[in-house]
Write a structure and sequence with these properties.
With 397 residues, the protein is an alpha/beta fold. The chain is 35% helix and 24% strand.
């Protein structure tokens, strides 16, 4: 595409600002449209930005802004609900130059990436809910719920797992699939735990899964995955009060070793739950003028630790392909070829992790017996290097 090309970026979460900055680096100007007035932090919500995500942000000169709001995390210690240490694993690898993974609050990463985009002079418009997209001649037109519209050469859907752009590309596109887990989380001060900063501790409890990490300032960040076979109706979880969740979690973890119960009891902010959904295989990622990326194209579960990192990788790869190829249709096809195998492999691996979290009875006993053996087999393997060491060479055409 030419340096005078323009783009509409739909969504200002993690993928949207990253895409806009990458497009600008490729010589394509864009405007970012977000349906909410601002990207509000989510209570109890945090994520891992793995080494590969930090590397992709470095290509955009945005790595320092993002990592400044988090703390380094590289390892995981896994425990059974009885207190038996099952083994260790990587949450990210450390590159030869010292680059490693980070943990950060989701809202802080949103804010850092949006601020980076705005520092680059990229316009972000809030309260713009997309209601329709039309390919018009050699361009695309977006219509918003307030009656306004915008035109550009291409449109990039960064609007998450429940993407409107995905439906505009393919009206038969699959919806996200429920993963059988409900997720909650929180932040706590003043509760001593036997753990050093920078390492996750994951507990395969008798009835649910619990994880936590200690930040450098001593605050404990925790999350719980609660198996629930029946998918909750959309919006129903928000109707359950924090006190009800707190009592339910206390009961679920009452018989497990570890600090789950005192951490849950000491969490003073409101507890909010969300059902975990994934989008594994999307048949169509693009038309000639529209494309989806990030969770709009491939949504792994949080168990992957890769959702944010894959979205940022997408931004770099998409912009590079648009820079190097003559038209958007060719660039979008190249983008899909480059990204689909990698992201679908990550999603499948995360699905297997979800299944192990929900194991009960004999399945739980087998998991606890086999996990140490499995961890030894996968440690420092080609798989780990492919996942965390992935690098997109921006300067190579």
């Amino acid at each position: 595409m030419t340096k005078s090309s323009t783009a509409l970026v739909i969504g200002c979460g993690i993928a949207g600002p990253a895409a806009a900055v990458a497009l600008q680096k490729a010589g394509i100007s864009s405007v970012v449209y977000e349906q909410h007035p601002g990207s509000a932090p989510e209570a109890g919500s945090f994520l891992t930005l793995a080494t590969n995500g930090v590397d992709a942000l470095r290509t955009l000169d945005a790595d320092k802004a993002a990592t400044s709001v988090g703390f380094q995390t590289t390892g995981i210690v896994l425990w059974s609900g009885t207190g038996k240490r099952l083994g260790t694993a990587e949450v990210s690898m450390t590159l030869p130059d010292g680059t490693t993974g980070y943990t950060m609050k989701r809202g802080d990463l949103y804010s850092a990436l949006r601020a980076t985009a705005e520092l680059h002079g990229i316009r972000v418009e809030g309260t713009k809910q997309l209601v329709g997209v039309t390919e018009v001649g050699a361009g695309v037109r977006a219509d918003f719920s307030d009656g306004s519209r915008a035109d550009a050469d291409i449109l990039v859907g960064c609007d998450g797992a429940y993407s409107t752009v995905r439906g505009a590309i393919d009206s038969n596109a699959p919806a996200p699939k429920y993963a059988g887990l409900v997720n909650l989380g929180g932040f706590v001060r003043g509760v001593p735990v036997d753990a050093a900063p920078g390492t996750y501790h994951m507990i395969f409890g008798k009835q649910a899964f619990f994880g936590f990490a200690v930040a450098p300032d001593g605050e404990v960040w925790w999350f719980a995955n609660v198996p629930q076979a029946t998918e909750p109706e959309r919006g129903s979880l928000a109707l359950i009060s924090g006190d009800v969740w707190r009592q339910q979690l206390r009961e679920l973890f009452a018989d497990d070793a570890g600090p789950a119960v005192p951490l849950i009891e000491a969490t003073s902010h409101e507890l909010r739950a969300n059902a975990v959904h994934t989008l594994g295989h999307l048949p169509r990622w693009h038309t000639d003028r529209m494309v989806v990326m990030g969770d709009a194209a491939h949504a792994p579960s949080p168990s992957s630790g890769q959702g944010a990192s894959l979205a940022i990788e997408d931004a770099v790869e998409l912009a590079k392909d648009l820079r190097d190829l003559p038209g958007p249709a060719e660039a979008f096809a190249a983008f899909e070829r480059a990204r689909r195998p990698r992201v679908e492999r990550v999603i499948k691996q995360a699905a297997r992790v979800n299944n192990s979290k929900a194991a009960t009875g004999a399945g739980r006993a087998l998991r606890d017996a086999m996990l140490p053996v499995v961890l030894k087999l996968v440690a420092n393997t080609k798989h780990s290097r492919q996942l965390y060491g992935h690098h997109i060479d921006w300067d190579r055409g």
